[in-house]
User: Fold these one by one.
Assistant:
Number 1:
Amino acid sequence: MPSPALDELLAALLRGDSLDRRAIKAFGSARIYDAARAHDVLPMVADRLALAPELPDDLRELFLEELHRVTAVDLAVEAELRRLHVAFAARQVPLLLFKGSHLAYSHYPRPDLRARIDSDILIAREHRELVDEIFRADLGYDAPTKLSGELSATQTMYVKYEEGTEVHVVDLHWRLASPQVFAQVLSFEELYEASTPLPALGAWARGPSNVHALLIACMHRVAHHHDEPDRFKWLFDIHLVASRFTPAEWTSFADAVLDRQVSAVCLDSLARAAEWFATPVPEAYAADARFAEARPREQTAAYLRTRPKASQVLDDLRALPRWTDRLQLLREHLFPAAAYMREVYAPGSERPLPVLYVQRALRGLVKWLS
C-alpha cells in the first residue's frame, strides 16, 4: 500500500500542484505507478507525468505507455457507448449513464482520465426485460449468470466480445445501490427528470444533474466501498463535482441529503475529499446544525463504521416497509435461484440442490459474522 508521503505526492499531482521533481525522483516511477494503481487514479497521474518535459525520459516512459494504453481502450469503450445509445433510442428506452461512467464525460478533462472497468447504466425497473433483449439481440452482448432475486438483485452484467477479446462491460442497474437503505434514495424517474445531456455520446445520452451526481458519488463511496473509504478515485470524483457547485446547488444539495436521510454519509465524504484535495465546501454547509440533529435518525450513517455483514442484512430488512418483502429478501439471501447455485457451486455436478444450499450457508457464515 502507498505510504503517507506517497499518498500526499499523488494528491498533489491530482490537485495540479507544481511538480515536486525531487520527491518524484526519490520515489521513482515504479512506486508512483503502483500507488496510483492502488488508488485507481493511474490515468490522471500518467497524464500529469508522461507529458512533463522537466522530468527525465526514463521516469516518464512508464507513464507514457500507460497513457497510450488507456486512450486506446477508451476509444473502443466510447464507440460501444455510442452504439448502445443508438440502440436504446431506436427502442425509445430512456437510460442514464451514472457514477464514474457519467463523470468521465461530464467532469473530467477527458473521459480516458477516469479509471473504470465497466460502464454503469441506470434504467427504470419495468424495462429490464426489454433492455435484456436490446443487449442480447440488438447489440450482441453476453450476460454471465449472477445472483438473482427481486429484492437482493439490483443490477446485472453484460459483456461484449470481439474475436474472443472483451471490449466492453456494462453494469446495468435498476436501483441506485445494492443495500436497501440506499436503494431507494433517488428513483430513476426523478433522476431522469433532472438529468442533463451528454452530447459526446449522442442525442439520447444523459447523466444526473450536478446535485444528484454529488449525492450519488458521496453515497456510493460509503454504500459499496466502505472498506476503502480513502481511495482517491472516489474522493476525487466528489472533489470534481463539488468544485463546480453554485450557491444554489449547495442549498439544494443540503435539502436533498437531509430529506433522503444520507446527510452524515455525504458530510463525511465531502470532509475526506476536502482533506486531500482542498475541495471548496462552504463553511455554512459544513457547519449546518441540521446535520448533527439528523445523524442519529439516519440508518445510512451506520455504514460509516465497520460492522459484520449480518448487521448490514438486518438494516436491509428494517428498511423494507412490509413483512412480506422482508421475508422475501431473507429467502433470496438464503436460497438463491437453482441455476445460480448449479453454476457457482457445482458446475457439471449432479449433487442434490439441498446439499449445495448447505454448502453455501456454511461458506457464508464466516463472512456474515466477520
Number 2:
Amino acid sequence: MMTDTKDRIVNGVNVTALMDTIAAVKNEPAIADFTFKLENEWRGGDENRSIIRGFHGACAAQPHEQGPFELMNAEPPVLLGGGSAPNPVEFILHALAGCMTTTMVYHAAARGLTVRSVESRLEGDLDLHGFLGLDEKVRKGYKVIRVVMRVDSDADAETLTSLAKNSPVYDIVSNSVPVEVDLTVG
C-alpha cells in the first residue's frame, strides 16, 4: 500500500492502512481467511529444505514479491547432525519471538502506544526421553517455553504482555492445534 502524507505512522506501522484493513475485514469477513504453505524436501541425513513461494489471503493468491524464500534445517552434532542450520524446534522459538514482537508492536500502534524498542530471549526445555520413545509419559516436544521481553515503551508491562499474546504463533504453541497428516508411499 502506498503511504501518503495523511497516513498516520506509529512504531513504523501505517495505522491508517491497519484501520482500513480492520474495517475491510469487518465488512467482508471472507478476506480474513488465509492459508500459508511451504514445500519441504529431505536432503539426506539431518537436512531438510523448505521453499515458501506465497500464500492465499484476502481472497486471492499472494506471491512473496521478494521470494521464494528458502529455509534449511538440520541438527547439531550432539543430536547426530552436521550443524549446518538451526533445528526445527529452534525455528519454533524464532517464529514465536518474531510473531509476538510484531503482534505487540502492531496492536500497540493501533492503540496509539509508542514502542521504541523490543528485545527478547526465548528458551524451551525439551526432554529427549519422549522423542526417543523411552518414556511415554514424557512429552515429545517442549515441556515449557520461557519468553523474556525487554520493551522500551510508555505503556505498562501488563498491557504489552496482553498485546503480545494476540500472536497467532503464541496461540499455536500454547494451545493444541489439529495437524492432519496424509502420507503416501511410493
